[in-house]
Design goal:
elongated; alpha+beta; 4 strands; about 70 residues; about 25% strand; 1 helix
Amino acid sequence: MARVQMCDVCGKPTERVIVKLYKAPKENSRSDHSRYKAHADVGACCVTKINEIQWQERQTKKKKESAKRAA
């Protein structure tokens, strides 16, 4: 018997999960990714809504330090 997968965006059953999102605390640790507090599964039905999220690009250490000095 196949497991029914649910889309956490619309709450409907989906054929497959396309994206898994994780919410982790922002700390200065290498293990942040393993201590996530919540997660969400995005199904094929809502994959177009992923493009609406305002993702922030990851910064290099050098770029981050220069931004701190400018502020």
